[in-house]
Each structure stands twice: as C-alpha cells, then as structure tokens.
Amino acid sequence: MLLHNRVLLSITITIICILVAFFIIRIPANTNNAITSVKIETQTEQTYKISKPDYEPLKQKIAEYISANKLSAGIYFKDITTNTTFGINEDKMFVAASTIKVPIMLYLYTLAAEKKVDLNTKIAYDREKDFESGAGILEYIAKQGDKYSLRTLANQAITTSDNIANRMIMRYLGKENIIKFMKDLGGQTVYPGGKNITTAKDLVTYMEAVIAFSKANPELGETFLNDMAHTVYNAGIPALLPDKLFIPHKEGDLDDVANDFGIVYCQRPYILAILTNKNKNADTGFKHIANISKIIYDYQVNTGLNASNSGIKYVFNPITPDNQDISNIIAPELKNLFDIKAKALMGSDGKKLKDFFDLSSTYGKYAYEHELRRIHYVTSWSKNRNIRFTDIYTDFRIIFSERKSDSIWIYAVETMNARYDYNDDAENFFGIGIRHAIQMVQKGEKWLIKKDWYTDPLDEDTVVQDVTPASGLYIESDVLPKILKTNDNIKAKGYIYNREKAVKYADLYNGGAYLTEKKHRYNQKYPDYTGIGGDCTNFVSQCLGDPEEGGGLPQDYIWFFDGKAGSKAWVQADSLANYLLYSGKGSLIARGRFNEVQNHLKSLMPGDLIAYEEKNDVVHFAIITGFNSKSIPVVNSHTSDRYHVPWDLGWDKNTVFWLIHING
Length: 664
Description:
Helix content is 32%, strand content 24%. By secondary structure, it is an alpha+beta fold.
C-alpha cells in the first residue's frame, strides 16, 4: 500500500521505518549489526609478528575452478589484517552493472559527512530523466513529481538495487562529479567512453574507501554498511557462508553478467570482488561466485592463516560508541512509562503519563496528546465490542542509543501482547509490533520524552487524523453472503491454494508483533518496502504466492515476484484488489462499513483477505489467520505489524472494508 501518515509524522515515520527495520527485522541471527572493525590483542605478554600468508595454493585452486568450468572471471582479494592481496584477471574490464552503486552512494555519504548535503533533502521524480526498469520498487509506485529523501533513495539503491533511486541520486550529484570522486579514490577504469565498466581491482579499492569512511564517520558509516549487509540479494558471496557473518556487499547482474563484491567479517576479515560474464545466465554466474566465495572462506578460516593459532586473537568491535551507560540511564524511566501505558489501555487512569513528557516543547506536548488519543481509541473500541483486557504486557528492546548534544536518542522495538475476553472465561490473545525513535531530554533529575515517533497498528495505518472506532458489538449471523464478483471457471485452471501454508507463513514472518523462530524478522528473500510506501501488500502477496512456504497461488505476468522486486499488483493495495477480483483468483464477498459487512464475516476462511478503503482508495491489506472465541476474524499484517489482531482494531468508523475470498 501507499502508507498514509499523520501530518506531523509523515516525514519522520519513513525515517524510522528505514532505521529501525534494519536494526530488527532484517538482521541475520547472531549478527552484530554495528559496523565492525578488527583489532589484535595478544593472549600473552609476548609480541607476535604476523607474517604475510601464502595465498598461492588458494589462487591455484581458484584458477583450476575457473578453468574446469570455462568461466570468464576477474577476481581480486585482500586480507584486511596484513593487506596481502592476490588477483586473477583483476585488471580485466567487465560491465559493472549495479556494483557501481556503491561508489556513487559513498560519494553521497561523503558529501553528507562534510555537511555539503542533507540526507533529509527530498528530490522529485522526473520520469523522463529517471526511469529505468529492472530492479527496485519505484518503477511500480513512483509517479511524476513524487518526492523522496536522499536517505530513502540511497537505502533503496543498495538494499533493493533500485535503478530509479540510483538515477535520481546520480542526477542530483552530477555524473562528472561522481567520476572525479571515483578517480580520486584510486579507480583506474571509471566510465571509459561513458560506459559502465569496472575491474575487480577497482571494486576492492572502493570497498577499502568504504571501510576508511566508516572509521572516520561511524554514524553514517554504520548506516551505509548496514544497508549493504541487509540487501535482499544474497546469491553471490554470502550464499554458502555461515548465516551469522556480517557481510556488507553489493551484487549486480545484466543478461550474462553476474558480479559481487564486499567485506567478509570472519575470524580473519577480507575484501573480495568477483566479476563474471559470458554465463549461460546470471543465476549460473552467481552460483559460480558462491562456489568461489566458499573456497576462499574455507581457506581463510580453516588453515594456518588464522592468527589465533599463533597466540593472537581477533576481536570484533563496534565502531559506534559504547552506549550501555546511556541505556542504563533511561531504561528504568521507559519501563515505568510503558507499564503505565499498558495499565491505561486496560482502563486505569492515564494522567500519570504527563510526568514522562517534556510538555514545554511542541513535540513533547504532541507526543503526550497522541498517547491520550491512542488510549481513548482503544478503550472506546473495547467498550463498543464488549471486550475486556485481562492483561497487556510489553517487551521493550532498546536496539541503539546515542547522545546528541543535550539529549539522548533511543531506537527501540516494542512488542505488545494483549490477552482479552468477552466478559467470559474464553481467553484470546493478540500481538502488535511498534518501532520507536525516542528523543529524551534531562529536566532536573528526570529524563523526559521530547519526541516519540513510532509506527503503531492501533491507529497508524488509517489516513483519518482523528480516528474513531465504529459503534456496535460484534454480531453473529447465519445470513449467507452475496457473492458480488466471482469466476466459475477458476476450478478449470487446475491449481490449489494451500490455506494452511499461507496462514503458517503469515504467522512465521509476522515481524515485531509476536516472537517466532524467525526472531521478529521478515522473510529476507523479499524486499521490505516499509520505508517507501508500506509492506502490507507485499506481505499478503508473499502469503498467497510464495511457492515454497506460502499458499502457492500461481503467479503470472501481472502479479509476480521476479526474485528482485514485485510487480505493481504484487506491492500496491488497490492494484492487488483489482487483480484478484478480475482474474478470478478472488471473490468479493462484501464491501461496506463495519455494520454493513458484519453479517458476512463468517463466510471468510483462514487465508482469505480483508482490504481497507479510505477516501476512495484501498490503503491496506491483511490476511485472516483464524477466529477468536466469538468466531470473529483475526488478522496478520505488515508495516504496522499485527499478529492475530481483531480485524477492525485501529480503523475508523468510516473505513470501508473489502472481504475477499481466495478461490482455489
């Protein structure tokens, strides 16, 4: 969907989604997402001299692999610890494809570090100058004149390899300026004859510059390296390596070209660039890159090269400052705040909340008033539905904190779990995931909230500014639904929609709303569009159409995910609604406001969908994952993460609901 936010939150929510999503949802298990550097500590009082390793056996092994598979490849390797290098065809020129986006974004971040560019600056999309099909989401959602911040564009250019985002930044920076910057870094083959050509050796040079930049500018460097480490494309260097490794890298492909280069932070970190062409196809090329990467990794960590065997250990340290003391300062205040918020949602007096906010500032006052509106909405909704909350508890995880002049910024994720009943003994449960960016200032001996920007399923998806729940209890009805649109030929198409797998997928990848074995992470096979419009429709499409873990609904030339990005019907709410109904894969059971669709709710099944329309636009999608004790549908969704939430919680009295049955 195209995310509609509150007026005062419209800019900041995008920033939060980008910052926090990469802290929590897309981080591989057991991976430190801060920038990593290496220092050497001796395990005894003796001083050990590290001799240059012998990479000739490794080079020979790779050469044999290249020969045996008749590859056209250029490779360059650098051991970060000793600066030892080796190469095979390292100066041979190859089409750079999307690997070129790294030095371009490095130039942008360098200008930002020098205060010559503000990453919050928004630039407008010019289709005539910026359009380029291929990777990314902007080709499906960007309209002429739409504005995006430089930070959002840089993030998308790296994480989803968005071609339009890259072209917009190139237009903003100027191609000649970019070329000069790359040559100043030491690049030898830089747009020769205006063509996007590079060498493996040049790419390693650019990655060395990224490391140097990150050490000199920890905050911006962390952002850049995290983007590269959390790209949706991982078919090359990381594919066969352990999941726990932190590997900032950038792939690129075009026809028979497959390239990848990056940093592998292991016991003995190294930089690696592998360029290939004349492959049967790009997928074949990436398989060879993955195999070569595995050969190099095994040699690097499993031979006598590892200095720990010689009494030296390598310690991986975040470049970011140690913020544990900051977290210890504000954690008790935040715990008290969230305890009071939870009690207020259950009906207790919320007036004590004002003691936690800096009411002398405009944003502090707004944050406090927003909490009161939120509490009023939830208590009104629960009263209207005859719901009683029996327990609300939160898991508040501080992901990152830092001092900025006289304030503290805290980036955190809150998982709020609620138990409720209908004034009977049948207990129900739901969870929501909330991503926070909180600024706190010290007033006397207390730390107060000056800003609290967050995505919240309780009222954030709706475009209505003063959201009010519809009146009325949930009702049970035996009225048969009227099928407004259907296609009787659907059975003749010969497919089966696996509802059980679709629901299981929705639960497994629910995000921050409920802890599963995926540890609050989305499926990293797909891009996360939270920061540039919303991920709800992309998530529902995954539930329906993922061929391995999802429902297996057949994809086609209109509704598809091509391994890099989803089609317009895959990622846009109104397009998906139209596609499902007119393709016959979905049937519209009912459409209307709360009281107009209630009689039709029992016609829905797990794996069916609910679309949410406001101001004549479908703005959100959710998938039905079950029914509670009163046979009321509960749903899961993304952007604002939901897990088994009653279908109408968070929506306005004027919201129009589409009840869509999935055929098959």
